[in-house]
Write a structure and sequence with these properties.
Elements: E1 4-6, H1 29-42, E2 54-56, H2 61-74, H3 99-105, H4 109-125, E3 140-141, E4 147-148, H5 150-158, E5 171-172, E6 179-180
Antiparallel strand pairs: 1-2, 3-4, 5-6
């Protein structure tokens, strides 16, 4: 198995398989090539073109031969095999993180419940059929660019607005315990 991975030269292109034949194509080859070049220029900052290399695939030939021999000997359905030695890192317990980090990384029960209620409302709007799920093109785009399901958008507009000031708890620290007012 002498497979090698390499970067493409400037004059090479990636072979593509289009479902349309050459006679059905509405874009000429020159226009198609110009579009590919403009896309490449657009993403040129993501690729370091100065580095070119060839590298062979990394695998253990001995294990590959043993696996092939075992598969031929058994001649049964292929099975999944797991590596016996793995490398991992220890993840701290969620209580070991500061409260501000915990709020960013994990949702509270109230947030999970609100998301579940929203999902049920949206699923009901789609007729309880996952195949009828609302596509992104049918979503409402908010001013910040967020996509909102039409059912959620309608429920937000229909929700009664509170009048007056919202009551909040004020926490102050002046050399003594927190006081709640």
């Amino acid at each position: 198995m002498g497979r090698r991975s390499r970067l493409l030269e400037d004059d090479e292109s990636i072979p593509r398989s289009d479902s349309t034949s050459d006679s059905e194509s509405c874009v000429s080859d020159d226009e198609d090539m110009d579009m590919d070049r403009s896309k490449a220029r657009k993403h040129a900052g993501l690729i370091d073109a100065s580095t070119r290399f060839e590298e062979t695939l990394k695998y253990n030939k001995k294990e590959a031969r043993e696996g092939e021999a075992a598969m031929q000997a058994e001649d049964r359905h292929p099975c999944v095999q797991f590596e016996h030695t793995v490398t991992g890192i220890e993840i701290r317990h969620h209580r070991d993180y500061p409260a501000c980090d915990r709020k960013l990384m994990w949702n509270s029960f109230a947030e999970i419940q609100a998301n579940a209620d929203r999902n049920i409302n949206e699923f009901r709007h789609d007729g309880w059929q996952w195949r009828n799920a609302t596509e992104e093109s049918e979503m409402v785009v908010q001013s910040v660019g967020e996509l909102v399901h039409p059912a959620s958008y309608k429920s937000r507009k229909a929700a009664p607005k509170r009048k007056g000031r919202k009551k909040t708890r004020v926490h102050r620290r002046k050399g003594r315990q927190y006081s709640r007012g």
